[in-house]
Design goal:
10 helices; 35 strands; elongated; ten-stranded parallel sheet; 28% strand
Length: 453
């Protein structure tokens, strides 16, 4: 029979060191609140439900943690009296009788399900408490895991450690698993007879052993256990997250010329054989199909780029942009809620907003779809194989038929039939010698002003 599991996620901290107006677990990593990363990490560890312990910005934290398919119940920690006290804020959930209890933190967004599964296996193998640790060459400040004959005998805080114990490089991450049938009894035995008067979860090691229970430890990569307390640490976590995801994508067949300059969102999808040039930023909701090319200095968010399409350099795709197979959005172009058909080209210096462009059409430089009248946004529809001359303004709502030709510099305000030529510009007039007269007049006015001064 499969073991049941409750994940208790502690996310009630005051975030004092973040110097922020909101809870630190709401701060984004790769465009997503870090608490959502944590829920996503614990979900595949075989959990039955999540008990989210909240404090500051409780409603916002609960909303940010909500992920499809994960049963979450929130519990308010009214006082901050230590990690042991925080876990007991979820007493009602723990009392439901799960086989395993996983305790983790909402400010450790790089964690994965691997160490959590290993900790659960430790419970299945007979341990009452399993601590997750990590090896580091910079152990200063961390509690050390002291192991003897395969069992964890103590977590020694640095201030209490002997010189020999300080040489230990296996450190406490704070994450642990607890036998669900004994959890409430063990947790209720934690006292606060310490300098801070707080209830420390780490005391479970000594308590479980004193009752004849078995306590063990499992290992996790140091990076995965990186916690966040300051803006500087948030930047480090972002860097680690980006490095990990870029590496995964390149192994899956994506080419990145300078990966350290490419920034991905938590849900960025890039297909095999796509090429990403330097200094590209992906916001949430970007999907890049196989064989597409994203040239340097482009920004893509909420957009779909089909197979063989090219973007940039210096292009911006905003939400709703959908580029068809083999289409092109060139340099210094912006597309918002615009759909380009197969092979359509928007080469340079152009804005396409709330528009549909048919297959094979060519949009000349400096073209603007005038989609907003100050109150409403309207759509521009351009048929297949149309040619829009440079510096044209298409005032929506307007439709350009298949094969139509719009003369350069035109302002188009009414529909253009298929295969028609439309000109919407003032007639040019030439006044011979007038430029000389204008210059002379300007100089005279300037001289008069100077004399008067």
């Amino acid at each position: 029979m499969e073991r049941t599991c409750l994940a208790v996620i502690l996310a009630a901290g005051d975030s004092t060191r973040m110097k922020s107006s909101k809870s630190k677990v709401l701060h984004p990593v790769a465009g997503r609140p870090m608490i959502a990363h944590v829920v996503e990490a614990v979900a595949p560890a075989g959990i039955s439900s999540v008990a989210l312990v909240v404090g500051r910005d409780a409603e916002d934290v609960a909303k940010a943690a909500s992920i499809a398919g994960v049963d979450i119940e929130s519990f308010l920690q009214k006082e901050r009296l230590g990690t042991g006290h925080a876990v007991l804020a979820a007493r009602e959930a723990i009392a439901k009788g799960y086989d395993d209890i996983l305790v983790t933190y909402g400010d450790v967004p790089l964690q994965t399900d691997g160490p959590l599964k290993a900790a659960r296996q430790g419970l299945a193998d007979g341990s009452d408490v399993v601590v997750i640790g990590f090896h580091t060459d910079r152990p200063t400040g961390y509690g050390r895991l002291l192991v003897k004959d395969g069992e964890l005998i103590a977590i020694r805080e640095e201030k209490d450690a002997t010189d020999a114990e300080r040489t230990v490089t296996w450190c406490n991450s704070g994450l642990m698993a607890i036998n669900g049938r004994k959890a409430l009894d063990l947790l209720s035995r934690i006292g606060n007879a310490n300098a801070k008067g707080e209830f420390y979860l780490t005391d479970l090691v000594e308590i479980a052993r004193s009752l004849g229970g078995r306590v063990t430890a499992v290992d996790a990569p140091e990076i995965e256990m990186t916690g966040c307390n300051t803006r500087a640490e948030l930047a480090v976590i972002e860097r680690f997250w980006q490095e990990r995801r870029r590496h995964q994508m390149m192994l899956s067949g994506v080419t990145m010329i300078a990966p350290e300059t490419v920034f991905l969102a938590y849900d960025t999808v890039i297909g095999q054989d796509a090429l990403i040039e330097p200094n590209v930023v992906f916001g949430p909701g970007a999907v890049i199909d196989s064989g597409a090319v994203i040239h340097a200095f482009s920004h893509i968010e909420g957009a779909h780029v089909s197979q063989g399409a090219t973007v940039g350099p210096f292009a911006r795709l905003r939400p709703g942009a959908d580029l068809g197979t083999g289409s092109k959005v060139g340099n210094f172009c912006e597309v918002k809620n615009g759909r380009l058909g197969e092979g359509a080209k928007v080469n340079h210096l152009t804005y396409i907003g709330d528009a549909v462009i048919g297959a094979g059409s060519n949009i000349g430089a400096g073209t603007i779809t005038c989609n907003y009248d100050g109150v409403n946004k309207s759509e521009t529809v351009i048929g297949e194989n149309a040619f829009i001359g440079s510096n044209s303004s298409l005032v929506a709502p307007v439709t350009i038929g298949d094969g139509a030709y719009i003369a350069s510099g035109s302002v188009i305000t009414i529909n253009v039939p298929a295969d028609a030529l439309a000109l919407g510009r003032a007639r040019q007039e030439i006044k011979t010698g007038r430029a000389t007269l204008l210059r002379e007049r300007a100089l005279a006015i300037k001289a008069a002003k100077k004399a008067k001064a």
